[in-house]
Protein 1
Amino acid sequence: MWKIDPPVHTAAFSYATCTSRIRNRELRERLDQAADEVAASAAKYESAAESSELYLLDQDELSVASLTGVEMIAIYKYRMAKKKAVGRFIYDELMLAAPDGRCPMCGQRTVSTLDHVLPKTLYPALSVTPLNLIPACSDCNHIKSDAIPVSAENEPIHPYYDDLDGDPWLHAAVVHTSPAAIVFSVAAPINWPDSLKNRVATHFRTFKLAPLYASQAAQELNSIKHYLIQLHARGGGDAVRQHLSGQANSRRMAYANSWQTATYTALADDAWFYQGGFAA
Ligand SMILES: [Zn+2]
């Protein structure tokens, strides 16, 4: 859901690197035969991803005739993902692409693995295609599992292709309870096409971002409570509001759509909260 720079290496380079040290003659022949098909499958994937149409890709169209799926997956496992493997530097570069090590799918947890956008079990031809590999946290990787997009609405938000950071879309609201709570939702900008609105809503629901952010925000409210009580004693609700507004602006400069930005924006806009609700 959060944009990251696309990888610099092509599928052809990745495949050639990962298979470079295989000397067995029979296998070598088949690996060389498969090279063009790997590149052609990657080209079809790229073209579909650019127009958010991965859901239209036919599994049979992205295949490699001279290698089995198991063999393609083994190239990823043992020649790319494995420590000290010949293609491991490509894996490491992909892992490091996420700014601050933050998972682009949830925007919160730390990157710990690579996720195949189109699963390698169903699309083995894309096993080592860098554009099909995104850094992710283990929770998001687990949630997604082997799911594949089946319609325009559930096409996943792709961190290499979709850039949502230009518009504020994550909305937070203060719940006037004791203690105060924050609830999160998607407030899609009106200029977004319906398909994008639906995709973001699906992503938000699938990856369970509302409860994840609510929990984080609850901890944040608890941790700033005593500071706000002191601030209020010195300067009243206005001082609290100004502080919260400054916090929101600083966080907005870092990430326009983080739960922190949305939370502080909501807190600074909520008179009940800054006039004393923070101590409820
Ligand atoms: Zn995540």
Note: Residues 103, 105-106, 109, 136-137, 139-140 surround zinc ion (CB under 6 Å).
Protein 2
Amino acid sequence: MSEKVLSAGDHIASKCTKCKDTTNHTIVALVGEKVARVECNTCGSIHNYRGAAKKKQPASRSTTTAAKSRSLNKAQRDWDELLENAKPEDATAYSMTTPMKEGLLILHPTFGLGQVLNCIRPNKMDVRFQAGIKLLRCKLS
Ligand SMILES: [Zn+2]
């Protein structure tokens, strides 16, 4: 007699779609010895018993969104920092024939002021503009 027989009113961990997590539930109805319906102790919703396994999708989605907004904030901070230290009058006018190098401040006809982050040989570079990081063709020094 080691196995506990569940009955209505007992507590059990179950996934809750409202809480988007595994929470404590109270058993509302059983079918035979199987838990059929449960009431979430956190939000009070009554739903079918879904077991205690974590649902991966909502968690990973919210993590991705958080990471994205963090990186957006970081991009904005990086840009503000660049502007603080940059001297626009020293910027080199961007052209396909002007040699570029990492760290160079450039002035692009479309994107405006930018800084070369990364040179990708033989002829490309990542440039941080206010609009974001762009991959441009260039001549490398
Ligand atoms: Zn709930």
Note: The pocket of zinc ion is lined by residues 16, 18-19, 23, 40, 42-43, 45 (CB under 6 Å).
Protein 3
Amino acid sequence: MARILVTGGAGYVGSVCSAELATRGHRVVVIDNLSAGHRHAVPPSAAFYEGDIGDTELLRHVVGAHGIDAVFHFAAKALIPESVTDPAPFFRVNVVSAFAMLEVLRACGVKKLVFSSTAAVYGIPTATPIDEEAAKLPANSYGDSKLAFERILASYASAYGFSVVAFRYFNASGAAGSLGEDHRPETHIIPLLLDVASGDRPEFTIYGDDYPTPDGTCLRDYVHVLDIARAHVLALDRMDCPGFSAYNIGTGKSYSVLEVCATVSEVTGRHIPLRRSGRRLGDPAVLCADPGKLVRQLGWAPQNSGLRNIVETAWSHRRSLAPSAAMEGAVECEVDA
Ligand SMILES: NC(=O)c1ccc[n+]([C@@H]2O[C@H](COP(=O)([O-])OP(=O)(O)OC[C@H]3O[C@@H](n4cnc5c(N)ncnc54)[C@H](O)[C@@H]3O)[C@@H](O)[C@H]2O)c1
């Protein structure tokens, strides 16, 4: 049993990981400022602190009070389009505040950290599938900020003996029961399509249908959020030695935008009106992971990432979105004054 601090544990991926850790008997402590997350998504057994990762006093308190062994760092600003028009908050949260947190961890002797990085660190790939050695040339400030923090972590591993795993997620998707994607605003394809299926949006816009792909629309690698959570659990078992390792989390199989639209239509039984628009700047034709390193070194195998299962679980979560009883029994924590 480990005592894990989960930053951003009220968000989409962080909440599913927190639940998975709790199910496996670990003690979970969540810090989240609820800027994008939902209090009811935090597992009832977890201790919860509403606060910012840049709040060093809070961090020091939480790490000391709970005897934290390792940190799973999900908290971030993560909307790519926003990072293009307004990069400052991305560098502030994803680099400056994250660095402040890291310094508290160093001072407290907590040296195990799993970091949610992203495929956006690769930018526009020159070859596919993408392995971890591919060039890192982010095409937006979000990717820049994530790569900057990866590099800080690599330095901390070599100089201060930190044990760090950086997971570069491709398209996180699907739901785990009552825990799923609920971003506001939403920018991800599957929840947007489910909005259309539910009648909450009139149509779905396809940005570009003249890419060099079989049906002309972009290809992306979708990985179920539960498979992401399980990679984190596997990482935890391998964090006894200092060092920095980066792993892609993707399946190695990609689907086109039109294939995703068709699957959503099939699963929901609803017609999805489509509107075709021009390409968006910086959207690569194909983004597909080579997950070989994760499979070989951590023994990871995606068990939930078939597109149909992803859409079915996301649809079932979408239909359940209602005031939740998950708050009941939750452990509320406050900082000692
Ligand atoms: N969802 C994806 O497809 C995807 C892909 C690649 C990487 N990632 C990375 O995975 C992580 C989780 O993504 P997500 O989709 O769950 O995002 P999310 O927005 O649902 O979750 C992020 C959580 O962090 C919290 N947060 C943000 N800034 C904070 C701060 N300064 N202090 C405390 N809490 C703060 C938010 O309230 C939210 O609950 C992020 O780091 C993101 O960059 C996600």
Note: The chain has ten helices and 15 strands.
Protein 4
Amino acid sequence: MKKIFAVIVAGLILTAATVIAAPPQFDTPYIGNSYRKTFHRRDCPSVPEMNYKNQVPFNTREEAFAAGYSPCGNCKP
Ligand SMILES: [Zn+2]
């Protein structure tokens, strides 16, 4: 019983940490910003600051260029 409680608490802490860190919602190597029409590497510092609803997944740079997105000047994808 105690073990189950510990698992639930650990799960809640993990969930809270995820919300704070706001990782990209996609697993793709590149994340586009539909508001700015720019795309980033997954690990760019701009990605966690991006609004979830503006995030667009891209598997390749070509895909992002084809969609009319420009590479970020910071992470240079
Ligand atoms: Zn970037």
Note: The radius of gyration is 16 Å.
